[in-house]
Design goal:
It is a single chain. By secondary structure, this protein is an all-alpha fold. The chain has one domain. It contains 12 helices and 2 strands; from the N terminus they run H-H-H-H-H-H-H-H-E-E-H-H-H-H. The chain has a two-stranded antiparallel sheet with strand order 1-2. It has helices at about 10-30, 40-65, 65-80, 80-95, 100-130, 135-150, 155-170, 175-180, 200-220, 230-250, 260-275, 285-305, and strands at about 185-190, 195. Helix 2 (about 40-65) runs antiparallel to helix 3 (about 65-80), helix 3 crosses helix 10 and helix 5 (about 100-130) packs parallel to helix 9 (about 200-220).
Amino acid sequence: MEVSDIPLAAWAVFFALLGLLLIVELAAFPRAEHIVRLREAEALAVLWVGAAVVVGLAIAAWLGSEAGVMYGTAYLKSLDLGHVLVFAVVFEAFLVPRQDERRVLFWGVLVAIPVRLVLIFAGAAAVAAYTWVVPLFGVFLMASAVRLARVPDFHGMVRHDAERISRRLTRVGGHLPAVRLQSDRFIARVDGRLVITPLLLALVAVELADLFFSVDSLPGLYAVSDEPFLLFAANILATIALRALYFVAENFQDRYRFWREGLIATLVFVGAKMILDGVIYVDPLLSLAVVGGIVGLTLVASWLWPGGPPGGSGPTSPR
């Protein structure tokens, strides 16, 4: 069977598997407010990375080794570790309690599935029409890196920004503390009227960041294959795996002394790559290697020179 002849039945089987895995995840975690601990985060990562491997082996057995290689390459190119750091910054900026982070990212996955499907079926030409937003997001990331380097009190900076953004966008003014008390909801009722909460703003921010990363990375995936099924399966499974990797990384933040330096370096690299989008092409695999190298170096440095973080705790400290 040719790669281009993938039937609708394959899509149905994949969506059934995706739905089953999401149900398994829901059943495996308590429904109440819950902080994802290291063992659970590792199990979550094994579940989704294992699912990606199984799907890859099935594709290789069904469509041949060439299709399996295409899928594997697309999967690796979709593993943008910048997602993980953006999750951390967004959650800190909107003061999302750790027990509510999984809820935001789970709903984020449900939104990302149709968005990725539309983008992939839209084709390279349609996605390229919106690449002008990528440099703008790159400027934002670079500005964030500069500000983070200049401001010693990271927590004070983001808490001030959170209060300012929340007051403007939630339109609750002096009722912001009341909304905070209902921060486990996306919509809250204050004085008899419905208002959006910072939790919903965090979900919107996560989805916008995911959209920017998608527009930046998808054109590179079309160089691997033009088969929507392979690209979608690899891309969405990698996106969900990144969410699990975030929870793994979060559980190491207390031992991650040089998180600040790693975050600044990563923001500078990802921001510069996005600003120069269309001028200099950086292969997603190279980007993955660079970001992974930055994270690895700062982790090793934190292990060799342990101690309290120079500027305070990490961006994912308990809120």
